[in-house]
Write a structure and sequence with these properties.
Length: about 575
């Protein structure tokens, strides 16, 4: 038992115990009611579990299991007010038991054992990483019995995803930041789950408007909640350069001092960026940095006019047009610049990817464009990273492992299909399905409509595996939803555009196609409004979703209208 237990938590525990006796048992969230939908769900109504005040979280000995257990404890302590001590597997105290088990521990607690606690009478949560069992790098197994809950995985990310599933199986009040009197019941049974695609992401444009580290961390939390595993940061554009580069210091210092509309802008120091990367990594989210080349470079040219065609210094840009700026592809200095920037950004980035943009370079045409891209691809390869670029990269020669990100709207592009035949893999970000900067409806207060209006059904009802003509499902690495921020200026606005569409994209990336069902999805998603509300997360009350009624009024913060947070 911990030596110190806050008085408030003590009171809450007592209150919860009393309330638990007075209240009729709350019907737990049904075992399959998780977003994204799990691969396999086996409910066992006789095995519902209620988290007791003296529950213990037990982790297998690997540091990653301990870390998952610590994150689980941090998620559950505020609302429950329970101490939830984290222990190693050995020497468990009786009481509530939540078990998290990784790798080798599988031998001790084989998947499929009836009692997840392995000890009669114990109750709680246990976190293990057992070897293999087909769970792969991200799969997990979650067993709920009357005695406790066990999450097992073959690798750390699986435990993280299992923890997020458990979070959704608890009552919505678990999102409260202060203790709540609630019966913390979880439906009995087993979930065995793993993703359909390995790359599931969202992009945040921090160049058009700059967002500080804390805002980005909160976006990481939203990704992790829905088992998205990549955060693509669009770090550079005409309006701002947002990452410190020691060899070209004016990029950030001069190029970062602007944004759309003329605000102050900003940029990440290397330590800021490392903080984002580390926070994301702990939540099994890989940061993908994008340095957009050779277009979308006005901010770089303001800082270093020597890179501009004709060496003419351009004025800073705070508008929202695209396609006018470019690095001089005929000047060798341009490639020194690209190599220096790519080297420094690659060195800061533990993930395997480096995104070089390549979109809308309207003034660098034909061989000048493909020649530039091919050199940039080689520069990235020399750092050991795998290149990603927007699908405009397609005509350039293949580079080992390269990935194209499709953002078109017509589902048919022979150049992209040809690049796939030459070996490219694809991330699907169709503008008319996944663009989170598109308005939901004509009256949405912020956003664009050039790729159409995208409400939740439109974001959900398509298949990344068969979306592009001539591209087989095996070539699809995954799916990602970009949020461009020309019109997005605050965290509340980011959340308003992300939710409730991000979970739709997350489900396309994670869940087996056989679970795809709009009627069921919208019902499952509806239950997330009380969670977001309790957590203080802004979202759009889309008419596509049958939100539950709330006594206090409308279910959500409708950004841009009365009662919206600012
Ligand atoms: C197109 S999509 C762009 C961005 C804009 C976005 C606005 C892509 C690769 N380029 O520069 O921000 O449209 O929706």
């Amino acid at each position: 038992m911990p030596a110190h237990r806050p008085a408030a938590a003590e009171l809450a525990r007592a209150a919860a115990e009393v309330a638990g006796e007075l209240l009729a048992p709350a019907a737990p969230v049904r075992l399959g009611d998780v977003v994204p939908a799990p691969e396999r769900v086996h409910p066992d109504p006789a095995a519902d579990f209620t988290l007791p005040a003296d529950a213990v979280i037990q982790a297998s000995p690997e540091p990653a299991a301990r870390d998952a257990a610590d994150l689980l404890a941090a998620l559950l302590r505020p609302a429950t007010g329970y101490p939830l001590p984290v222990t190693e597997t050995a020497g468990v105290e009786p009481g509530g038991l939540l078990m998290l088990t990784l790798g080798a521990a599988a031998a001790t607690h084989p998947a499929g054992a009836g009692d997840p606690t392995g000890a009669a009478g114990a109750a709680g949560v246990r976190v293990d990483l057992p070897g293999g069992a087909g769970l792969g790098a991200e799969g997990y197994r979650l067993d709920v019995t009357r005695a406790g809950i066990r999450i097992t995985a073959a690798a750390p990310a699986g435990l993280g995803h299992g923890v997020q599933t458990l979070r959704q199986l608890l009552p919505a009040a678990i999102e409260s930041s202060t203790p709540v009197a609630e019966r913390w019941a979880v439906a009995g049974g087993t979930i065995v789950d793993r993703p359909r695609f390995p790359y599931r992401g969202a992009m945040l444009d921090v160049a058009r408007h700059f967002f500080g580290v804390d805002d980005v961390l909160r976006v990481v939390d939203h990704l992790a909640r829905y088992k998205l595993n990549h955060l693509h940061l669009h770090l550079t554009d005409d309006q701002g350069w947002r990452i410190a580069v020691d060899s070209w210091p004016k990029l950030a210092e001069v190029g970062g001092a602007n944004e759309v509309g003329g605000g102050p802008g900003g940029w990440y120091t290397k330590d800021d960026y490392r903080r984002i990367v580390a926070y994301a990594a702990r939540r099994h989210v890989t940061v993908v940095p994008e340095i957009d080349l050779p277009g979308h470079t006005n901010a770089a040219l303001v800082a270093y006019p020597e890179l501009a065609p004709g060496k003419v210094p351009p004025p800073p840009y705070t508008g929202t047009e695209v396609g006018f700026s470019y690095l001089d592809p005929a000047d060798e200095r341009t490639y020194d610049f690209v190599a220096d920037v790519v080297r420094e950004v690659a060195a800061l980035t533990p993930g395997p990817w480096l995104h070089i943009g390549g979109d809308e370079a309207f003034k660098v045409k034909g061989a000048a464009y493909t020649g530039f891209v091919e050199r940039a691809q080689r520069i990235v390869a020399a750092t050991g990273k795998t290149v990603i670029g927007w699908h405009q990269l397609a005509p350039a020669a293949h580079a080992e492992g390269r990935v194209l990100q499709w953002w078109g709207t017509n589902g048919d592009d022979p150049e992209t299909a040809d690049a796939v035949r030459r070996g490219a893999r694809l991330i699907l970000s169709p503008g008319n399905r996944t663009y989170l900067d598109m308005k939901y409806a004509a009256d949405t207060p912020i956003g664009h409509d050039w790729a159409g209006l995208i409400d939740v059904r439109r974001a959900y009802d398509w298949d990344p595996g068969s979306h592009l003509t001539g591209v087989p499902a095996e070539a699809v690495l995954g799916v990602a939803a970009p949020l461009w921020t020309e019109s997005v200026t605050s965290l509340a606005e980011i959340e308003f555009m992300l939710l409730p569409r991000l979970p739709a994209v997350a489900e396309l990336g994670w869940s087996p196609r056989s679970t795809h069902d709009w009627a069921r999805f919208r019902a499952r998603l509806a239950a997330h409004a009380p969670r977001w509300h309790t957590a203080g997360i802004t979202y759009h009350p889309s008419p596509d979703i049958p939100w539950p009624a709330r006594k206090e009024g409308p279910p959500v913060n409708d950004f841009g209208r009365a009662g919206a947070p600012s």
